[in-house]
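Below: protein 1.
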Amino acid sequence: MTTAPARTTAPAAAPVHTDPAGIHRVLGALEQPCYIVDTGHGIGATNAAPGPGGRIVAAAGPLPPERLGSADFRARSGVAYAYMGGAMAGGIASEELVIALARSGVLASFGAAGLLPERIDRALARFAAEIPHLPYAVNLIHSPSEDALEREGVELLLRHRVRCVEASAFMDLTPHVVRYRAAGLSRAADGRVHIGHRIVAKVSRAEVAERFMRPAPEAITADLVARGLITAEQAELARRVPMADDVTAEADSGGHTDRRPLTALFPGLLRVRDTVQRETGYGQRIGLGAAGGIGTPRAAAAAFALGADYVVVGSVHQSCLESGTSEAARRLLAGAGLADFEMAPAADMFELGVELQVLKKGTLFPMRAKKLHELYKAYDGVEALPEDVRRQLEQQVFRRPLDEVWADVEEYFTRRDPDQLERARQSPRRRMALVFRWYLGMASRWAVTGEGDRTADYQVWCGPAMGGFNEWVRGSYLAALENRRAADVAHHLMRGAAFTARVHQFALNGVRLPAACTEYVPVPPATPGEAR
């Protein structure tokens, strides 16, 4: 008896979804390819090649969020995502925020600016204990009026062997930031330069970007060698590498910002980077990141489409549970819209007239800070203020006699930077500036500590990205403050950016999908605290 040959069954054709919810699910399966199919009765989508009944209109390969941005940035940062948590001064980018993001595969920068050395010292010790093998960065902010702070900050970074710094607010290179970079250089066995101290420079001007993209100035390195702060070999190696491994184009962001549109700023810095790269012939490619206004997946996708190697998110993280600000400030942030921000004088550069972007809704700080700067420009000192003006300041703004405020200022700068006091004693106007800076400094502290009777004076550094984020998450689980965990936010922004990029790929091929299919919606993790 003969046995009939086994009958083979053709594999079932993959289902083609034509309803908006089904198309959305197909688009969201980012680890799989996606096919847009003409079914003869309309457009559908599937994650597997369709059977003979469907004609492929367009196709896109897998696009998991780990593929976005630059592989070089991810490799040298030791992270899974081309995403960075930017520094927010005063410890708002807190130890908890940095640790949470580091454990989720993201580089985050500790907000060391404005903190006393002993607080920074404790934070660095904690990172060494809790995330010894995970990447993180520490903010080094330029302090033009407080040189000692910048110098002491670098001393701490070197003592704790911090491997990555986010340099911000620099208008030019200083000996301190050059020292940090050069002190980490050594010669590898193959003769190449080993970079032990990475720098991510946050800039908003092409001329500053170029200074960080070129080698350290030889006049500065020679002086550092003469003072015994770096070796002659390190000075020689510094000629062969850029000052920064990565440069972030800071657009319209919270805090210090020139409020330049990212679409105008980024292409200009890209041209500078490519020109410097050609002229110097570095062995490494300088990364170029995008910051400012990135609070939604569409914004992140747009930054990657511009050519960003990585994106930096700041303002949005401030509303997360791990941030170092108060619940009262977080609630103000969660209620912010796109137009609820304003520029106000900066405490650290008050005399120079430099401004930073802050939250306007729910606080009188921007108005009061501007008034103080107007008085600073108009009068030669506290004693020169008209009596009625002084009385109004003491009763409504400072809520105490200005002489008492000066006593606090003296105590503060005796510990922090005594040179400031010496200059103030020689100049009544300088003394007035320090008194007014007391209010600006305390206003940010009141927001961080949640001082109940000072809500109207809260200084909350923030930009329009916060308003965009609030609009995007409205109606989702991330709308509630208690659900805003930094790792979840980072995960959804990156996954949403990949989803948006996939939608754009099809749009570029002439496929316009229904609007209901094209918006990434964050869904809660299966397990509380789990970002996926």
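Below: protein 2.
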Amino acid sequence: MVPISSSRRPARLRPVAQTLGVGLAGLGVYAAVGHLGYLPHPPFQLVVLAAAAGLFALRRRWPGPVLLVLAALTGPVPAVGPVTAAAAYSVARRMARPRPRARLLAAAGALLVVCATVTGPRLGPGSAAYGLAVGLVLAPAAVIVPGLVGTAQGQQGRLLRALRERGDAAERARRLADSEARIHERSRIAAEMHDLVGHRLSLVSLHAGGLELALEGAAPQLREEAVLVRRTTRDAMRELRQVLGVLGPLARDTGPDALTHATGTRADIEALVAQSRDGGIAVRLDWTGPDLDARPAPVRRAVHRVVREALTNVHRYAADAHVTVTVEHDTAVAATDEAATAAADGARVRVTVRNGARPGPPAPVEEPGTGRGLTGLRERVELLGGTFEAAALPSGGFRVAAAVPAESAGPGGGPAARRADDGPGTLTAAGQGAIGTDPTAPEPAGPGPDGRRTAEVLTLGFGLAALSALMVIGIAFVYAAQPSGRSGPPPLPRIGMTYAEVAGYGVLDNAAVRAAATGHEPPRPAGTTGCVYPFNGATERHPGGLLIARYCFDAAQRLIAIDRFDVPSVRDATPWETP
């Protein structure tokens, strides 16, 4: 089993956290609507809400069907609204084509309204008309608005990625131009060295050969000196060809070390190590990973040059030291397809040549090096996008280390850009579903600094909470606007009701009405223990008097009589009127 790194754990837990978040938002709407008393069939709605949260986790694999099913469930169960809103935002954000996205959002909104209208009489407010009102309230909050926000976010992410890719292409073009200028300059230097030095060395070699033949009979004791001059000139010509190969274009090698199909492979490195062993150096090769025969030619050439130059320096300065050549070819195994693609893009070839300290005092060097060999290696490796280090060890030895991207395409190319940046809303031509979404695209919290990601999560959380509040308010308005079921005038008290029931209809005693009735009321019925004189709709004023209602109760507080009688009104004359 491959252990899961700590950096991958947040990515694995993010979908679970998102599902729990939208589930809690749905529970909030469920609790708020239930508290207001507008929640028919609570157990059924709770079960549907749990099923909707489970469907939300599948939105990346089947984005279109999941959104449509959630919209259909939101009609009879408004608590599913926050789950549908989050799914609409996520799906719209990853869809690049505008027409399929608009059709999907329109279909989801229409399906929500239809389901709310159909289920209104049984699972909703009680009638199809008010079910239609609930659907019209939920469709914008659960589908339209989140879909528009997701569309804007997705377009912004795609625009940023396009700008980033354009900037990367411009940077690669600049590096390529610099590399070509450097190659042209090296070619010019190589041509000048060939014209100025090569011809002179050829003449020296030719004259040395003639001198050797002339001294063979005349002065045999000087012949060896002529032979030494000729051999030295030959070695100088060979080294000049090697220098011309370094200064020439990096895309092709010249001289005796021209590139072949085996250059830089394991067999080639083993041959270099064997040659050093034959020269009396104790060399050990440690190779990790597969062979490099499938890697690009610049990578293999760089590996060959690093090992060869490092072993050449060992031959010159530390021939009796122990040497270790290490080649590591990364082949990371990923648990997911996304991780495998990232691992392939980040694969590297690491080469390290380390020699220990000499067992005795340092040997004198007849001709110290100029350091151009290590400088040339550094330039070659950095042109491929790699890193190079060469330094003495505290123990007295020396270490040369290089790391080259395994997929470098050439000078200035850097790692191969085989795929676009996996930011929010990434779309691939091969991975699109039926509605044009990428099932492997990351979630809204896309890559970026931790601060930006936290701000985006908080913004989306507050937006979902606001939409949930709007859903609750809209549902409350629709349920409050429906009729209570009673029609016509309010009912009146009836004979036989208790005093509490009569008082429930607003029939309460009024002291002013009782005073007006005193002395003008008819006799009370037999068995009466008390009467109530209310000031309500039964007390009417007419010219010359008042119509008063009297409610009489027996000892058991039962209503036994309702009487209405007129009481004359008293009117004082104004001071200027004559009696």
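The chain has 14 helices and nine strands.
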